Predict the 3D structure of the following.
Amino acid sequence: MLYPVVDPIAIRLGPIQIYWYGLMYLLGFIGALWVCYYRRNRVVKTWEMQEILDLVFYIAIGVIFGGSLGYWLFYEPSFLLEDPWRVLRFWEPGRSFHGGLLGVIIVILLFCYLRRRRFLEVCDFIVPGVPIGLATGRLGNFINGELWGRITDMPWGMVFPHVDPLPRHPSQLYELGLEGVLLFIILQWYIQKPRPLGAASALFCVCYGVFRFMVEFFREPDSHQEFIRFGLTMGQMLSLPMILVGMGILFYTMHGEAMRR
C-alpha cells in the first residue's frame, strides 16, 4: 500500500494557513466537550455548563504546553537547554502525550483549587472523552506522515515515500484504533454503572499504558532516541509508570469498595 500523501494545510485564506493537525486538536477538544455535556445531562448532574467550558479550556492549555514541554524534555532535552523558550512556541511541531498528561494533571489541580472539587472526581468526569482527542491526534499524525512504523512484510504494510521505499506498519492507525476507538468503547462500557471514585481514571491509565506499550513494538523509534534500556523505547518507558499507577489506584478503590460492603 502507498501512503496517500495529503497536503498538511487544510485551508488557505490569503496569508492565513490552517493545518489539518490543528483542526484535529480542535475536533478532539470539541469531542471531549460533547462527552462532558452528555454526561452532565444524563449522569453527573452536579456540573454547571460554565464549569465544563472552563475545564476543557484548562485542559486545552495543559495539553498544548505540557505536550510541547514533554516532547523537548523527554525526547530532545539538548534542544530545550539551547532554547528553553521554544516550549512557548506552541505552533511549532513536537508533542508528547505523556508531557500533555502531566500538563493536564497540573491544570486540573489548579481547577480543583479554584472550584473546590476533588481531583479524582474531575478526572473521572473528563476521562471518558479523552480517547476522542487521542483518536483525532493520531489521525493528524497520519495526515502529516509522521510517527511511521517499523519495516514489515505484512500485506497492509504502507510505503511512506518521504521516508524510504520499504513497507512499514501504519502505526499511527494502530494507535488511533487502540488508544482512540477501543479505549473509548471500554470506558463508555465501564461507566454505565456507578464506580468507585478514581476507578474510571485508573482504568484509562492502565488501558492507555498497555495499548501504547504494545504499539511501540510496531512503531519506529525516533532516530535520535532509538532504544533506551532493555530494548524498550522512550514511549514504553513512560507508559510503564502509567500502568503501575493505574493498577495501584484500581486496587485501592476496589479494596475500599469491598471493605464498605
